[in-house]
User: Fold Phospholipid-transporting ATPase from Oncorhynchus kisutch.
Amino acid sequence: MDFSILRNLISRYCAGEEYWVDNRTVYIGHKEPPLGADAYIPQRYPDNRIVSSKYTLWNFIPKNLFEQFRRIANFYFLLIFLVQLIIDTPTSPITSGLPLFFVITVTAIKQGYEDWLRHKADCSINECPVDVVKEGTVVRTQSHKLRVGDVVMAREDETFPCDLILLSSSRDDGTCYVTTTSLDGESSHKTYYAVPDTMVFKTEQEVDSLHATIECEQPQPDLYKPLGAENLLLRGATLKNTEHIYAVAIYTGMDTKMTLNYQSKSQKRSAVEKSMNAFLIVYLCILISKAVINTVLKYAWQWSADHDQPWYNHRTEIDRERHVIRAFTDFLAFMVLFNYIIPVSMYVTVEMQKFLGSYFIAWDKDMYDDELGEGAQVNTSDLNEELGQVEYVFTDKTGTLTENNMEFIECCVDGLVYIPHAICNGQILSAASNRESVCLSVRVCVCVCVCLTVCVSQEHEELFFRALCLCHTVQVKEEETVDSIKRGIHQGKPTSFYISSSPDEVALVEGMKRFELLHVLNFDSVRRRMSVIVKSREYLLFCKGADSSIFPRVVSGKMGQVRARVEQNALEGLRTLCVAYRSLSLAEYEEACHQLSEAKLALQDREQRLAQAYDLIERDFTLLGATAVEDRLQEKAADTIESLHKAGMKVWVLTGDKMETAAATCYASKLFRRSTQILELTKKRTEEQSLHDVLFDLSRTVLRQRSLSRYAAHSHQCIFLEICRNCSAVLCCRMAPLQKAQVGLIKASKEHPITLAIGDGANDVSMILEAHVGIGIMGKEGRQAARNSDYAIPKFKHLKKMLLVHGHIYYIRIAELVQYFFYKNVCFIFPQFLYQFFCGFSQQPLYDTAYLTLYNISFTSLPILLYSLIEKHISIETLKSDPTLYRDVAKNSLLRWPVFLYWTCLGLFDACIFFFGAYFLFDNTTFSSNGQMFGNWTFGTLVFTVLVFTVTLKLALDTHHWTWINHFVIWGSLLFYVIFSLLWGGIIWPFLNYQRMYYVFMQMLSSGPAWLGIILLIMVSLLPDVVKKVLCRTLWPTATHLAQVGPQLDHSSGNTTAPIDPVLTNTVNCPLLSSDITTSCHRLAECPASCDSSAEFQIDP
Assistant:
């Protein structure tokens, strides 16, 4: 939803339609225009205060309560609590109100603390110091006090407090250099230019004497308005390599473009949470069924002639006439009596488990990177268990699989290849003195390119290196800190290094002669090229860019030889750039200047007009040559991808590179194998053959022995999706950032697989936000991906432990937590249901009010919480060394309906043992030495005691990793129950109106048969689960069971896990996504075992 439209409508309504204008006039320095100029119309703008918090001191309670009671379980317990207050119910309102109050309070404290952190962050931003020019002097003020029209002085390494228009700079040419890491994730330096009319104002007095206005649009999310990208300094960007600048504020506070462009994260729900809600609905139906059955049976029993109420409790005529209302109130009373089957405390326990468990990821030393000085970060704790359910991994290539550290390899000039040799202090380090070389001068070290064949014409050679020297945005920097990493320090001493808007340029540029730089046509992802216009003896236009954007615009040059070399470099995994030039006459140059000036100053459709101007200028090129740089694979990237494959995950690589370069990287990272067949879907192939026929040919290859008739009526997209779903690896090339977000196609398929996206740059943010789990790499392209992700890791290799270890263990823990909560609540409430058959359906509770209230809060809560935090069913080393164990927990295997039914049936069985075992022990039996019979509260206490010990010992049987903390909590919780029962029944509490439990627990413990009955019932209750575990491990062991026994056992013996199928690799360029796609597929079970082929899909946008 576009909130800017809603904001504008509200502003129009509040201000009045007659006062609304589409443009705003900014008066620099708040100076009114001189007499005779346009009328001065003051406008009210928001201050520079930033608000990212959700609550205030006044609305926290009502707003937080509203949000919490939107959760079905909380709202349900609120209704039950109100029913207990309104009508006569068998239990006290405290039994429902106290657990609900505990859950609401804990959640409110957690959310309040998180919002307090947001308030604290807002205050630190709003109160940061800012220098403002007033009356010819620089005055320091706070950021939130800035107003539209204030002239701000920003110094080097300072962050811009609001959206500014650059007036002048300390540099003579009126330029400044800015990093936009917090905006688009790019840590490279960008060049901005002062307004030509104001760039001569160099001092505070001169700037303060300026009388001018700025006409601009009202706040819009577009980042490149109002005066063009080269003038607008956005809030959050940082000034670099410039002493100071003067700029005027045009958008402040919540009107800044960074705020308007903020894309809030959609609420991601894990598969476990969805299973919890489904199970909750089942138990709610069970609850309603119990209440209906008891209500019907109560009135059937009462209306029976032989079993009516006693004579002193006969119903009056009024009661007989109101039987419908009475039946409804009885139904509500039974709902209250059985409502504890809904585990409201489960939600707060799950929240605490996720919140506390996320710290183990952040504390993992194996995911700490010494180079960055940082470890893994958890931005959301709601998806810990989702890391153990990933089926598809979508990854970026550059900076994620590779290091994003470019090294110059070679260049090709007119088809002739040059390789570099290092020169330091004028000495050539390799024998090249007998060959003609071209020296590119640098401050410290210089690269020399030596011709491998014969010399080319001096003119083209010189023009080629001039293009490399001039067509760039490289600057020299002494020392700098980028994202807490110091650069430009060598052996403790500051040295020079290069900074640029592109890492390729740093690897290419070496130095230049002095030329007059006239215009820069900046690079963009649509054109995929950049150009400069320079003047020496003549006007020259130099251009460099991707081969797909340069070759169509070339009219002369040795295109065949250069294209062949480019393709060869791409096959070797090198990144290539093509270089071309064009001579401009004076008339052509003046026409180009006119077109660029008109486009840059346009207030409407500026982007389209600039694109048209660039298109007219960048044409009729002469091809000079091409360059090749290498981006090496990250450490252990291949091992990580191989482990993910063994774990059953399908890896897709989404990149903007050309298919040949990306495919070489995929082979190096073991995503593809040399022995596999390649299937291609390319634009060239779709031109030769219809898309429909191509897709069906591919589907026959990938989906052998499957009927293709069912796809006949489907769209091309469905067929293509079916092909890709049956592939274990896919490579998508030439993809734009928005195309990467189309991972939702896989999410929407009928299997609804869990997807994970990982990337390091701002162009990966949409993909990261779209996937079920988003992981950001703390790479060299800034931290935008890391900030917008659910988790952030330093290197791609850390993904292996994140998924195979943390994801696996967290899923095991929370699955046990959820199933255990439902199990222990069935054990808790089903005896209450059975008890109604023996008390005339009178709604008599079986347990005391204190037991009803504290069962889920105190007696059984801590052991399962600790289990869900520290349980390790398999050692970490085993999980890392055997990725196939990940398959045992895939597809939400521990929360499927059969497993849920087993836990529920186990709870019903145990509940029957508790109730009927105690019943038969009580039947015609005298427990006390004086012959006194035990009462109903003693019976309920006996059942409750067996219940608490059984469910706690059940958890102890499921525990594999024992520590002193486990012993303390498990045995301590049982001891706490005994001590509480002794105190609760052994002391007369003055604040209680009645004390029905007085001396009950001690009287029960004084009886030998009670002790024998408790021990016997506990053993009988635990026996079926023990037998089931023994049979499963003996007859049908899984890989997990075998790994728990020990590494000496052969995993293949008795293992029912399906063997890994042969690999089918496919590469396709698909017009449906307007991108190059390469896939690598696992052959399905019905495919012949001898089939080993692959396919490649490719499309140019």
